[in-house]
Specification:
Mean pLDDT: 88
Low-confidence stretches: none
Structural class: mainly alpha
Number of strands: 2
Distance between the termini: 35 Å
């Protein structure tokens, strides 16, 4: 996980830095950007496709460490499931 200390250190390098991970903290540094998957949309599409294929019950089992991306993914899944009834 990238914390505000790491972003500050990267920002202090004086060169453009692109972080290939989700983080909202890049706004505290002038030359640091974040490039990441749209995790909310990913979760929404995953659930939407399963529901359209006729699945009535969905479960999500993760084996990755806790990260902010997982919360976005789950929100997308829940939104699609709620929309499908």
């Amino acid at each position: 996980m990238i914390d505000d200390r790491a972003i500050a250190l990267l920002g202090g390098l004086g060169v453009p830095v692109v972080v290939l991970a989700y983080t909202e903290l890049v706004s505290i540094a002038e030359r640091v950007w974040s490039v990441s998957t749209d995790w909310y949309r990913t979760g929404h599409l995953m659930a939407e496709l399963m529901l359209k294929a006729g699945h009535e019950r969905l479960a999500y089992v993760h084996n990755e460490p806790d990260a902010p991306e997982r919360d976005l993914l789950l929100r997308g899944i829940r939104h699609a499931a709620h929309g499908a009834g």
